[in-house]
Amino acid sequence: MRFNSGLLCLSTVVALTVAPLRGSAGGPAPPSPVLQDPPQVVSHDGRLRTKIVVDRRLVDVGGRRLWALTYNGRYMPATLRLRPGDRMELTMENRLNAPTNLHVHGMHVSPSGHADNIFVRINPHQTFHYSYRFTRNLKPGTYWYHSHADPGSAPQVAGGMSGVIVVDGLTDHLPRSLRGITEHVIALKDFQVQGDSVKTQNLKISAPTTRTVNGQLNPTIRIRPGEYQLWRLANVSANIYYHVHLRGQRFHVIAHDADPVDRIWTADSLLLAAGTRFDVLVQGGPPGTTTRLETLRYSTGPAGNTFPQATLATLVSAGTPVRPVRLATAFAPVEDLSHAKIAARHTIVFSENAAGTEYYINGRQFDMNRVDIRSKLNTVEEWVVRNDSNEEHSFHVHTNRFQLMSVNGRPHHGHGRQDTASIAPKGQIVIRIRFTDFTGRTVLHCHILNHEDKGMMAVLEIVK
Description:
Elements: E1 40-42, E2 47-61, E3 64-71, E4 79-82, E5 87-94, E6 103-105, E7 127-133, E8 141-146, H1 153-158, E9 162-167, E10 182-191, E11 193-194, E12 197-198, E13 210-213, E14 220-223, E15 228-235, E16 242-246, E17 251-256, E18 260-267, E19 269-272, E20 277-283, E21 290-295, E22 298-299, E23 306-307, E24 310-317, E25 342-352, E26 359-361, E27 373-376, E28 380-387, E29 393-397, E30 402-407, E31 410-411, E32 420-423, E33 428-434, E34 440-446, H2 449-453, E35 457-463
Parallel strand pairs: 1-4, 2-5, 4-9, 10-15, 14-24, 25-28, 27-35
Antiparallel strand pairs: 2-3, 5-7, 6-8, 8-9, 10-13, 11-12, 15-20, 16-19, 16-21, 17-18, 17-20, 21-24, 22-23, 25-26, 28-33, 29-32, 29-34, 30-31, 30-33, 34-35
């Protein structure tokens, strides 16, 4: 880590205080293990080469020994780290007794052939070679990878098949004194238990669920007083929402869904719907301060689920204080589609049956052989996405991210683009999306994977 005592010119300065953490009896909280960041596989000379073996293994997860679905024998697999313009050569060997595949969530890359093609089916005991060529304007930030093997996405991701991707370059927008900032992957990953195994079948979203950070139960995150750290918050779970809150602190958001913001914005809490990521700066409190990173109680509506409050990690501020750095709010350039010429408009309606056993987009369930929306390359479209159900849904589009224009009729300025947005019960969002670089068949869907697997997905074809 490198630190610089110089102060920067400021548009805004935020002072932070931290509340002490106490145990249930009012005394100090019990000790917890130190946060372990996942190992990394890093690109060299413009290329990342790796192999992923998919297997069911007995692993340590959340302080228990359980059978789980693993990548290379790990419940929390390696972080794949690369730069814009790189290539990635990835071999996937399937040792499961069910088909699988791989999706690089949020990445602007070809949806065809051996790239981010979710229509690929890797059968049991087969091997497939993925090859990705990323553009030089690929946005820096936090992405993730996971199974997209419809209709088995939910059981495979819930079983453990998800990991993080980092595209470098985000810290280039930070002050020089923070270019060597300490980073932590904060992968929010949860599991249910059935006997001696992580549960994969007949998943009930509302069932008791253990929430972990990087597969650890309430790990300790160490920070120096006054120090800024970069936390890569990523909801890499199958179905559950996280309403993340750091007691006494504010998150300084520098990227949303791997899209750097135009201006740093702050929040007491952040809603990470299924599939969502935020890159945030967190500052250490006074010496000896301990505080809790938690997910708050959250309801997705009368037909949805209520997720209870849970502690995720413990932040401990100790060591030699660091002279605070003042953060200017201006951050990175962002293209604004507010005045773009609109080539086409579509209405997309999410709905479900009364029993919650079938889910629809525009009244139809997913059919991989049917094209539901056809869009032209190098154009901008405006979509109205409406939720006719009584529960929240997590709307996600592959290949190209979108600009969220309004929420329930109110104009929205999100400081950049995103690939996932939550739609309230009986709610509506309006988005604008520019189709660039790649043609081919891809998908849009609800990222609550139980819903996706039961029909809430549609085929989008991008044509010249």
